[in-house]
Design a protein that fits this description.
Oxidized Rhodanese, domain 1; alpha/beta; 6 helices; two-stranded antiparallel ribbon; 7 strands; five-stranded parallel β-sheet
Length: 144
């Protein structure tokens, strides 16, 4: 009888430990940033042209076309080593975008983990932004 009670206690303790660990894992995996739709970004830009927009695509992608008003280009693979360039924005709104939203989600997570408190990931990236008809710009190449 004592062995059964002991094993029952062990099983219950194991279940509780597993559930606790699962809850901790879920908390860790929750993104600390928020998502923002193209329409919301457009509305924010209409009210505040100084909103900080960070493009995390490659320089070639940026030159080809980017959201009008972009303040900075830092490709995703350079976010960690160049994070100091953004230190003065830790408590300011930052909208991060890429082509479709995947790279920018990773960048937004990195920024959030480094203490940035108002980070937004543009859902659907520049693809969705352009489909909605919002303004983009190109870097004009000099004529050769």
């Amino acid at each position: 009888m004592k062995k059964r009670i002991f094993f029952l206690i062990l099983i219950i303790a194991g279940i509780i430990a597993f559930q606790t660990r699962l809850a901790q894992t879920e908390e860790i995996q929750q993104p600390a940033y928020k998502s923002i739709a193209s329409s919301e970004l457009y509305e924010k830009l209409s009210k505040d042209a100084s909103l900080f927009i960070l493009d995390v695509r490659t320089e070639a992608e940026y030159n080809d076309e980017h959201i009008a008003g972009v303040k900075k280009l830092i490709p995703l693979d350079q976010i960690e080593p160049r994070i100091g360039e953004l230190e003065n924005l830790k408590d300011k709104e930052i909208v991060v975008y890429c082509r479709s939203g995947r790279r920018s989600a990773a960048a937004a997570q990195t920024l959030s983990a480094k203490g940035f408190t108002k980070v937004y990931n543009l859902t659907g990236g520049i693809i969705d932004y352009k489909e909605k008809g919002y303004k983009t710009e190109k870097i004009l190449k000099p004529a050769e």
